Amino acid sequence: MIWRIRERDAFARLAREGSRIRTSSLWCTYLPDPGAEPPRLAFAIGRAVGPAVTRNRVRRRLRALLSTGVEPPPGWYLIGARPGVTELTFDQLRVELIALLAKIPSNSRTR
Description:
Number of strands: 5
Shape: globular
Radius of gyration: 13 Å
Order of helices and strands: EHEEEHEH
Helix content: 25-40%
Structural class: alpha/beta
Low-confidence stretches: none
Largest sheet: 5 strands, mixed
CATH architecture: 2-Layer Sandwich
């Protein structure tokens, strides 16, 4: 289970205190927080990725992957996509997301 981030203060805290990681098609700003169980998550899919239909498809695919077992450790996450993400298959996106989450330092993981 994953909760959504909706509060402006949470986004400001992520921008101020969060750490950033990247893969070729995805990026993430995260803030480890053992008290954030389940993890809190938001998406930032910019217009460079494509029109609204494409951006929404990418967001739905990421949300589906995160609900089927590819779950980040407790904390706050803002996950974004780069323009090349639209060329990935679902399985390639899964590999990319797993690689992104694997870059989170082990000292910030609680599991």
